[in-house]
Specification:
With about 70 residues, the chain is an all-beta fold. It is about 0% helix and about 45% strand. The strands form 2 sheets. It has a 3-stranded antiparallel sheet with strand order 3-4-5, with no helix packed on it. Strands 1-2 form a two-stranded antiparallel ribbon. It starts with 6 loop residues before the first strand and ends in an 8-residue tail after the last strand.
């Protein structure tokens, strides 16, 4: 099974990628990623045993909210 274990955030300047940042390295098996109507990113994940975990909401740190 090919497990997705990293979320990647790309910074763009128009069509050009200016930065690539890996997030959540090997912490969870990521099943689905969605952006909600509130603008937050939501993740559906599994734990190391393949059992579904609660939906997680990623929130920016105070420095990222600028």
């Amino acid at each position: 099974m090919n497990a997705n274990r990293q979320l990647v955030r790309f910074s763009l300047n128009g069509p050009v990628v200016t930065n690539r940042e890996g997030l959540l390295h090997d912490t969870y098996r990521i099943r689905d990623v969605r952006v909600g109507p509130d603008g937050y990113v939501y993740l559906a994940t599994d734990n190391i045993y393949g059992q579904a975990t609660a939906i997680m909401r990623l929130e920016p740190t105070p420095a990222e909210k600028k």
